[in-house]
Write a structure and sequence with these properties.
By secondary structure, this protein is α/β, with parallel strands linked by helices. The N and C termini lie far apart (about 35 Å). The longest helix is centred in the last third of the chain and has 17 residues. It has 3 helices and 7 strands. The model has no long low-confidence stretch (mean pLDDT about 85). It has one domain.
Length: about 140
């Protein structure tokens, strides 16, 4: 550690379970939400959308305008691999999917993301009974 650098606590929670018995949830800031849910604001939006665990890929969409999501529009699994997780479940590599996933918006207000959105995402996932979380970005 160099001069002037302080030690920071990096949250680390080692996984001690078995993947084949674990439930997995998806969390993404790629602008993912159900087609029936309100779109994210193109001006920046730190809100989140809770997505049911049994969602089909065809029920999802992306509304962010700050990145090219043409590939995700064709196959949502590019940024939200819900169908790939189901395949892993069928192969017995994971135990299943949590009963909810989370998509949230993007904002340059990182303080709000850290202090408001992140705790809301954590709360939603904690209630999903998931053992593991796969994070994706857009």
């Amino acid at each position: 550690m160099g001069m002037g650098m302080s030690r920071r606590c990096v949250p680390f929670a080692p996984f001690e379970g078995k993947l084949s018995e674990s439930l997995v949830a998806l969390v993404s800031n790629a602008g993912i939400h159900l087609k029936s849910q309100e779109s994210f604001s193109p001006e920046g939006d730190n809100s989140l959308r809770v997505v049911p665990g049994d969602v089909k890929g065809a029920e999802l969409m992306v509304t962010h305008s700050h990145y090219d999501h043409a590939d995700a529009d064709r196959d949502i699994n590019c940024v939200f691999p819900i169908d790939r997780l189901r395949e892993l479940r069928q192969e017995g590599l994971i135990g299943g999917l949590g009963d909810k996933h989370v998509g949230f918006g993007y904002s340059l207000n990182l303080k709000e993301t850290y202090e408001v959105t992140a705790p809301q995402v954590a709360d939603a996932i904690e209630r999903s009974k998931a053992d593991l979380v796969v994070l994706t970005a857009g």
